[in-house]
């Protein structure tokens, strides 16, 4: 019976975080190297691993999640292998080498607890979305895992004069050094987006990347409020 299933067995550990297939994350946990992960994302583990939902460090930051766009997190600690998933979504693993990334909270799966992180308002969008758009910014030396509803595309903005436009409901993450602004579009409303009213896009420019998923989020991130 083991022979037909051999191809699905876990591969030897080669990194702190790595994919097991397209839809599962494998994390090698060690004492003193804790992980923050989305609550409910654990699907299996080996070894001795403890979980603490909503730890004090998360509660302190969560006070800024005034718009309800935050992700409930748990602290994972101990020694062993931890497997995480999010309803079959694709998993994207990123090794931050002193860089940063701004992530839509609904696409945040896990990240090293020692990384610097916090919730920030995306500048330039308040007039389009009432209170604006809030994202989780993570930076430092360490690992981050994102989810995508389908295989994502990573767009390199290239630093040129041309802007990159993205439907906010399909946006996963972007380089925090990019310039961001909102754009209204009436003529395109029958071609993109899911709403029947005004359509909004986010325009990015500068040096950096934008990660876009091929499926829109279940709730509009930019909409007329009032």
UniProtKB/TrEMBL annotation:
InterPro entries: AIM24, AIM24_sf, Trp_RNA-bd_attenuator-like_dom. This is AIM24 family protein. It comes from Streptomyces cinereospinus. The lineage of its organism: Bacteria, Bacillati, Actinomycetota, Actinomycetes, Kitasatosporales.
């Amino acid at each position: 019976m083991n022979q037909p299933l051999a191809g699905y067995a876990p591969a030897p550990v080669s990194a702190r975080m790595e994919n097991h297939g397209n839809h599962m994350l494998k994390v090698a946990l060690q004492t003193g190297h804790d992980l923050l992960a989305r609550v409910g994302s654990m699907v299996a583990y080996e070894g001795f691993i403890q979980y603490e939902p909503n730890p004090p460090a998360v509660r302190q930051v969560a006070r800024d999640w005034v718009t309800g766009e935050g992700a409930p997190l748990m602290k994972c600690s101990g020694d062993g292998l931890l497997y995480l998933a999010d309803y079959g979504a694709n998993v994207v693993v990123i090794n931050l080498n002193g860089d940063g990334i701004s992530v839509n909270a609904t696409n945040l799966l896990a990240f090293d607890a020692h990384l610097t992180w916090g919730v920030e308002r995306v500048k330039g969008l308040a007039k389009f979305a009432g209170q604006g758009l809030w994202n989780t910014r993570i930076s430092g030396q360490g690992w981050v895992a994102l989810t995508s509803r389908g295989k994502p595309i990573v767009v390199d903005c290239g630093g040129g004069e041309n802007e990159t436009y993205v439907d906010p409901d399909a946006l996963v993450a972007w380089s925090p050094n990019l310039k961001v602004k909102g754009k209204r579009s009436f003529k395109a409303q029958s071609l993109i987006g899911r709403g029947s009213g005004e359509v909004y896009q986010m325009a990015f420019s500068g040096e950096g990347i934008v990660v876009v998923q091929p499926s829109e989020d279940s709730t509009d991130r930019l909409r007329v409020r009032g």
